[in-house]
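Our working data are protein records whose layout never changes between entries. Getting from the letters to the C-alpha cells is the skill we practise here. To make this concrete, we reproduce a full record directly below:
***
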Amino acid sequence: MSNRVKNQSNESTAKKRQRRFTAPGILVAVIITVVHVGFALMLLRAQLLPAKYMVPACIALFALLVLEIFLVSNHKHKGRFWTGFVLSLIMTAVLLLGGLYLNRGVQTLSNITKGEQVDCIDVYVLQEDPAQSLEDTRDYTFGVFKCPDYEHVEETIQHINKELGGEIRVETYSKLTDMIDALMDDEVDAIITREGYLGLLNDMEGYETAKDQLRSVYQLEFRDKLVEKPKNDSKTDTFTVYMSGIDTYGDVSARSRSDVNILATINPKTHQILLLSTPRDYFVPLSISNGIPDKLTHAGIYGVDVSMDTVGMIYGIDMDYFFRVNFSGFKDIIDSLGGITVYSDYEFAVDGFYYSQGENHMDGASALRFARERYSFSEGDRQRGRNQMAVIQGVINKALSPEILKNYNSLLSAVEGNFETSVPYNMVASLVRDQLNHGGDWNIVTYSVNGTGGYEIPYSMSQYAYVMYPDESTVAVAKDLIQQVYDGKVITQP
C-alpha cells in the first residue's frame, strides 16, 4: 500500500475518532443551550425584572453558556471537558429549579387574577326532615324568597323541574323571614334560597339560630364573570383597590357578607399607600337598592361588584380593582409568611390570645382573632377596622422583606385558592419591577371613617337592626386624603 493511501486511511480513522469523541460535547452543548435560552425566555415572559437587572442577567447567562460550550467541546483535554461537564450539570440543575419556581409563581399570580364570583343556590329542609336528596323532595312544596337578584333562583327552579320531571309547587315570599317562618310552621316543606342570604338571619332578633336548624339536600352553583371596567386613563399611575374580607371559610369567590371593607389607594411613583377602613354597619344606599340604605356588609351578598360600586359611591371615586380573601385564607397566608409584626393600640386578651400594647408577633390564628375582635373596645367596630389595617400593614412589611424568599413555596400554596384579585398580572409585574428597580420603604397611612349608632330596617332585612350613620366630616377627610395620594403629595397620619 502506498504512503498516500496509508495517510488517507490514517486521516479517515482520526476523523472518525474525532467525531466519536466530540459527540458527547455536542450533546451537552445542545442541552445546555436549550436550558439557558429557555430560562432567559421565562425571565422575559415573567416581566418581573427591571431592565437594569434583566440585561446583566441575560449577558451572564450567555457568557456562562459560551464558557460551558468551550469547556466541553474539546475532547483532547479530558480535565477541561469534565470541568465543563460538571459546571454544565450544576447550571442545568440550578436553572431548571429556578425555572420551576419562576413558573409556579407566574402561574399562581395568573390563577388568582380572576373576574368571577360564585353564587350557590340551595334547597334546604329542617334538620329533622327525612329527605336526604332532591329526589326525596319530589312531592314537597317549596318556599322561595323573591330576592332582588332573583335570576339564579329562577334558573334553579327550572333545573329542579327538569331533574324531577315535572313542575314543583312554589310559594313566593317578599321577605326572607316570612319564608323562614313558613318552613318552621310547616306551611312549606323546603325552601330554595341563596346560601349567602342565610347569614342575614344571624342579625335578626328571634332568628339567630334559624340557620343551624336547616340542612341542604341540593345545591346548584353558578359562576358569573364580572364585567371588567375600563381603567380611567387619567389615573395611569395611582390606583385604588377595594379589599374585601368575606365571612366564610369556603370558596373565596362566593357571594357573602363583606366584614372587611378597606380601600387601598396606591401611588407607585411616590411610594404612598392610604388604607381607608369603612365600618361594616355603615348605613348607606347600595348601588342596586334604588337609594334605600342598607348595611355596607350586605352589599357583598349581591356580589363584589356591588360592594365596589357602593364604597365608590361613599367616597366619590371609581374602584379600579379588588382583592378578596376569606378567613381561612387570611390565616394560611400569614402562617406561610412565618408570622407578622402588628402594632396594637390596646392591651387586651380574648379566647386565650393575649395582645400587649405596642408591637406583637402574630401567627395566622392570633392575627385572625385580633382582626375580628370588637367587643374588647369602647369603639367596637371602628377599632376593629383599625386593627384590620394594622394587620394589612404587617403583611405588606413582611412581603417587602427578603424573608419572604424563605417561605416562597408555602406562600404560593396559601395564596392559591384563598386569595383572589382583579388586578391584572401585568400590573402586579410592574409593581414588582418598580420595587426591585427603586427599592425603598413605602409610606403607609391609615384612616377610619366614623359614625353614630342607631336602629333602622336595612334594605336587605325585614326588621330593625343596628346600623351606623356616617359622620360626613370624617368622610370628607377620607376624600381629601385620597385626592392627596392621586395628586402625588406626601400624606401624614391625620
Notes: The longest helix spans residues 3-46. Confidence is low (pLDDT under 50) at residues 5-11, 16-21.
